[in-house]
């Protein structure tokens, strides 16, 4: 795919599908739906779509018929296995626009279909192959002021590998045990797209790691290489291979800046998620503290009527018992009254009152601490909420900048936008170097 650098690149994707998913793929490829989520599909152009292989029935019905005819085998595979594959071949829209549009696209994908037959292993395993010509490239259409369409090829196939079935020990003829009984075309997505050993282009020898293990090429990379080479062989020499792996090899300065901004935006979004998680944790802690405080308050309410006036009563009777007891009556000596009756009784009462008073003070202190803790948690949550608001505002600002950049790029054209930003970047670098030289001269002069 093109990345704004003026280079046209091939692109091939392989998608795996189960029986449960293939119905939706059929409806999309064969344009069987009444409406589509993709708003760029133009129904009036659907008649321009080109079938290089028209399905003889529904995809599942064709699969079942091939299985019944013995063309393919599903022996041993699970019901939810990947039984279908879809190759999508693609080049950026500008490539077809610059080479004549629809007619050129038809010829290109005619050759691409031949490549698909080789990749799949035979046309008999292809269920459908259709070039879509009815999907509008919105960005390019708006930039050029005319309708531009994105041509691409869908090839739905059954992934098969050749498998030898051998005679087992149950065979009555022991001489046949271990020998090939029959060869079937086994449905297997994993074996069809197994990684392949990498080869040194100079020597032709297999590449190995430092530990002697073979270096493997991922199936996606093999697919990209095969499609690119076969299209080059078909005469399309003005194309380059699609991106290798997940790395970007041809980023311009402008694209690098946009990529950095997008990465920073992703980091801010991640920070917002983490901050929200911290707020949720703080809210849970605050709720727990509030619940505990409510329980303590409920306990205080339960004993409030018992403690009413208790502080005053305890203070009144907390002094020395000899100072609050009355004098003895005329029938009993004061000493005997105080020592045997009044003093022991009041000592017990005061002891009980002091115990109750201490319990009251402890409970009151605990309640006050809980209220203070709750207040601190509320304050922390308020601070976190403000930080989340700031992060979200910065994130929205970055999104707006990216959208503004895309609008300007579409309005003045990608090449002009790149030239302007490249000039600005060079000017910034020159200004930085000028200031750095000035600081160095100032330091040398100070010496």
Overall tally of domains = 2
SS class: alpha+beta
The major pleated sheet works out as: 5 strands, antiparallel
CATH domain class name of the largest domain = Alpha Beta
Low-confidence stretches: 245-257
Number of helices: 12
Tell me the series of helices and strands, N- to C-terminal: EHEHEHHEHEEEHEEHHHHHH
CATH topology category name of the largest domain: BirA Bifunctional Protein, domain 2
Report the CATH architecture of the largest domain.
Answer: 2-Layer Sandwich
Shape: extended
Radius of gyration: 41 Å
**Strand segment tally:** 9
What helical percentage do the residues reach? Answer: 55-70%
Cα(first) to Cα(last) distance is 57 Å
What is the residue-mean pLDDT, rounded to a whole number? 77
Strand order of the largest sheet: 1-3-5-4-2
The share of residues in extended strands comes to 5-15%
Explain the overall architecture.
With 447 residues, the protein is α+β, with helices and mostly antiparallel strands. The chain has two domains: 10-250, 2-Layer Sandwich (BirA Bifunctional Protein, domain 2); 265-412, Orthogonal Bundle (Helix Hairpins). Helices cover 56% and strands 12% of the residues. It has helices at 19-29, 59-68, 93-98, 102-120, 138-144, 189-192, 219-233, 253-307, 310-316, 321-324, 334-412, 414-446, and strands spanning 10-17, 50-53, 84-91, 126-132, 152-157, 160-166, 180-187, 196-197, 216-217. The protein has a five-stranded antiparallel β-sheet, with helices on both faces. The radius of gyration is 41 Å and the shape is extended. It starts with 9 loop residues before the first strand and ends with a helix. Residues 245-257 have low confidence and may be disordered.
